[in-house]
Design a protein that fits this description.
single chain; 149 residues; alpha+beta; Jelly Rolls; 6-stranded antiparallel sheet; 3-stranded antiparallel sheet; 4 helices; binds zinc ion
Length: 149
């Protein structure tokens, strides 16, 4: 006997939104925007995929408290320092190798379960977009909601 889960994707062209960022590890809390889209989908049980197409941004969850965000940025700087030479920066003029590496580590997408029409997140857990690029950017966030039956 197998285990079978039906996945049905509700597609809606408007399941995207734009966010302007300042770059340089700018953190934006996108929890409310994602919840808004989920409500519109009317899906009660399933999975919510949140993705930011791009190789210099990240999506994760954290307690979006200003001091913790500063701690997180400091940690990212220690983990992937800005002030050291990178091969990518010698080849390309953008000088954003650390932005790409941070993005690869954090990843620009996230999946959150949905129960009773809500994102299953802890009380102190917010969904954040981090822009690692070294310039302000306009980012498009793509949300896909999968219904599980
Ligand atoms: Zn680059």
């Amino acid at each position: 006997m197998g285990f079978l889960v039906w996945l049905k994707m509700k597609y809606n062209k408007k399941m995207r939104f734009k966010i302007s960022t300042k770059g340089f590890n700018d953190v934006v809390d996108i929890t409310d925007k994602v919840s808004e889209i989920l409500k519109k989908s009317k899906i009660k049980e399933g999975l919510c995929l949140i993705s930011c197409p791009g190789s210099t941004c990240g999506i994760t969850t954290i307690e979006a408290e200003p001091n913790l965000i500063e701690d997180f940025k400091e940690f990212l700087e220690k983990l992937v320092p800005s002030n050291r030479p990178y091969r990518h920066d010698q080849t390309w003029g953008e000088r954003n190798a650390p932005s790409h590496i941070r993005s690869a580590l954090i990843k620009p997408f996230l999946t959150v379960p949905i129960e009773e029409g809500n994102l299953v997140l802890g009380t102190w857990q917010q969904i954040i977009l981090i822009d690692f690029d070294n310039r302000p950017r306009e980012r498009e966030i793509v949300v896909k909601v999968l219904e599980t039956k």
